[in-house]
């Protein structure tokens, strides 16, 4: 099955590697920021949806081709698709379009135009279907990258795959599990290591770590008791609460409560924006995390952190003797941020 798959922009290589591993595919490739194409055998689709750490959506490609600037060229591709093979009668549909490039039509025009083709084709085959934008039975996806168009049917419905079942408590600025897993992957978390998230919020990083690593120790700390209580509830929902140590301590005091060289990986999404009163407050927390890393990381320990300002971390880490081993820019919601991995 040919799929168009999506992830957080900036994590494409992690998704390609994962697709190749799960789907045993040698054809996974990046076609745009946050967008990859892969060939996956049908019997691996369920595993992909259930096990992927970096996937946010996946659609089965049912039509593709080269278009020009006009909507008609896109509709021509849609007309070649045998929609009755994919959409049963009496179904509801919605068309979602994402578009890159200059065209004489908008994304809304594209959704409407393809939707009209689908409904007319189904009707011509004696199939009844209606548009339902809020809760459709089938989501038809249209991805236009300059003059290449891909039309697909989403495999897991409307909701993004990054939304996890264990989120019974939603932190004010919850971290996407895809980004949490990127922090862990780029930080090279290994079995039998000890992980610390000093600003864990709803516990996404420790929970994701324990879901995918059976033999680690995870420490989930936050200065907010409400956050820790919520993180514990999420861990219970995920079935991993007995494998996580919960602490309710201010970051600046945490080093005195942990043994030197006791942590192998610190993974952190420090509060920023709506979670902090000012940029200065945010920088104080980051400084405290860097100082904590210097004091509690093991000899081969790493700090994997996401923050909008690479220059600030570069300057502060150099001041205290931490070395940047890896950095990359990603899109964290609507904000461009950096994932930075540091070591002693």
Explain what the structure shows.
β14 and β15 (335-343) form a beta hairpin. The chain is built from ten helices and 15 strands. 44% of the residues are buried. It folds into two domains: 2-154, VC0802-like (2-Layer Sandwich), CATH 3.30.2130; 177-343, Rossmann fold (3-Layer(aba) Sandwich), CATH 3.40.50.150. α3 (71-79) runs parallel beside α4, α5 (177-186) packs across α6 (204-212) and α9 packs parallel to α10. Helices cover 33% and strands 29% of the residues. One of its GO terms (biological process) is tRNA methylation.
Strand and helix map with partners:
Elements: E1 2-6, H1 12-23, E2 29-32, E3 35-39, H2 45-51, E4 57-66, H3 71-79, E5 91-100, H4 107-124, E6 129-131, E7 138-145, E8 148-154, H5 177-186, E9 194-197, H6 204-212, E10 217-221, H7 225-238, E11 244-247, H8 251-254, E12 263-268, H9 279-296, E13 297-307, H10 310-320, E14 323-332, E15 335-343
Parallel strand pairs: 5-6, 5-7, 9-10, 9-12, 10-11, 12-13
Antiparallel strand pairs: 1-3, 1-4, 2-3, 4-8, 7-8, 13-15, 14-15
Helix pairs in contact: 3-4, 5-6, 9-10
Quick structural overview:
The protein has 344 residues and is of the alpha/beta class.
What profile does the largest beta sheet have? 8 strands, mixed
What's the name of the CATH homologous superfamily of the largest domain? Vaccinia Virus protein VP39
Number of strands: 15
Radius of gyration: 23 Å
Q: How many helices in DSSP terms?
A: 10
Instruction: Look at the helices and sheets and give the structural class.
Output: alpha/beta
* Residue share in β-strands: 25-35%
Helix content: 25-40%
Low-pLDDT runs: none
**Mean pLDDT level:** 94
Question: SSE order, as H and E?
Answer: EHEEHEHEHEEEHEHEHEHEHEHEE
Shape: elongated
Distance, first to last CA? 45 Å
Number of domains: 2
CATH topology of the largest domain: the name is: Rossmann fold
Q: Order of strands side by side in the largest beta sheet? A: 2-3-1-4-8-7-5-6
CATH architecture of the largest domain: 3-Layer(aba) Sandwich
CATH class of the largest domain: Alpha Beta
């Amino acid at each position: 099955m040919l799929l168009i798959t999506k992830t957080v922009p900036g994590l494409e290589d992690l998704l390609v590697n994962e697709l190749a591993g799960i789907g045993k595919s040698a054809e996974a490739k990046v076609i745009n920021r946050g967008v990859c194409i892969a060939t996956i055998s049908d019997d691996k689709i369920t595993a992909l949806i259930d096990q992927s750490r970096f996937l946010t959506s996946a659609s089965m490609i049912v039509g593709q081709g080269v278009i020009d600037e006009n909507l008609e060229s896109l509709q021509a591709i849609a007309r070649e698709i045998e929609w009755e093979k994919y959409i049963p009668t009496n179904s509801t549909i919605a068309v979602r379009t994402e578009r890159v490039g200059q065209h004489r039509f908008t994304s809304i025009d594209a959704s409407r135009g393809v939707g009209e083709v689908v409904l007319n084709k189904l009707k011509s085959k004696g199939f009844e279907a209606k548009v339902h934008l809020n809760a459709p039975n089938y989501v038809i996806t249209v991805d236009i990258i300059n003059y290449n168009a891909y039309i697909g049917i989403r495999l897991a419905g409307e909701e993004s795959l990054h939304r996890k079942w264990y989120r019974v408590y939603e932190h004010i600025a919850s971290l996407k599990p895809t980004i949490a897993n990127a922090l862990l992957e780029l930080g090279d978390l290994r079995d039998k290591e000890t992980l610390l998230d000093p600003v864990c919020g709803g516990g996404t990083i420790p929970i994701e770590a324990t879901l995918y690593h059976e033999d680690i120790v995870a420490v989930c700390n936050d200065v907010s008791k409400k956050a820790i209580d919520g993180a514990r509830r999420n861990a219970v929902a995920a079935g991993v609460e007995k494998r996580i140590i919960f602490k309710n301590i201010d970051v600046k005091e945490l080093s005195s409560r942990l043994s030197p060289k006791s942590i192998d990986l610190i993974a952190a999404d420090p509060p920023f924006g709506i979670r902090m009163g000012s940029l200065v407050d945010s920088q104080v927390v980051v400084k405290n995390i860097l100082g904590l890393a210097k004091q509690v990381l093991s000899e081969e320990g790493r700090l994997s952190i996401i923050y909008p300002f690479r220059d600030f971390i570069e300057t502060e880490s150099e001041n205290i003797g931490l070395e940047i081993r890896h950095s990359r820019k990603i899109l964290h919601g609507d904000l461009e941020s950096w994932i930075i991995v540091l070591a002693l």
